């Protein structure tokens, strides 16, 4: 009997020691899990804060976009109004000028003081040359010196000397 009691006591002590080890392991596991839970809560709070910030920024952007869109619509409305005013003004001016006949300019005499090529008028400092081929009156810039033959206009020179062009 005492041996049996001693064996039971030893077994109980061994089971108690194993239970303490299991309890210690479970406590360590609980501590580790609590630390993970704490980190997860902190991450959740950070994500919630970031989400609130993003939502607030999105609402601000939406409000800014709405204000900009309203401003652009007002600008378009103003531009359409101005366009209508201008069209009415154009129509009124057209109606006022409809009965006015514009006189046609009379054609200049053939021997006026204008270059036949560039229509520059001959004055004191711009000399007039007679083309030796077509007899037209041309300025210095529109004529070519052909030496002993005199000057001719560029058109006649190009027709006579096609390789020069």
Structural commentary:
By secondary structure, the protein is mainly alpha-helical. It folds into two domains: 1-100; 110-164, Zinc/RING finger domain, C3HC4 (zinc finger) (Herpes Virus-1), CATH 3.30.40.10. Helix content is 62%, strand content 6%. It is built from two helices and four strands, in the order αββββα. The chain has helices at residues 2-97, 154-160, and strands at 129-130, 137-138, 143-145, 151-153. The strands form two sheets. A two-stranded antiparallel ribbon has the order 1-2. Strands 3-4 form a two-stranded antiparallel ribbon. β1 (129-130) and β2 form a beta hairpin. The longest helix is centred in the first third of the chain and has 96 residues, at 2-97. The protein is elongated and about 155 Å long. The relative contact order is 0.04. The model is unreliable at 107-111 (pLDDT under 50).
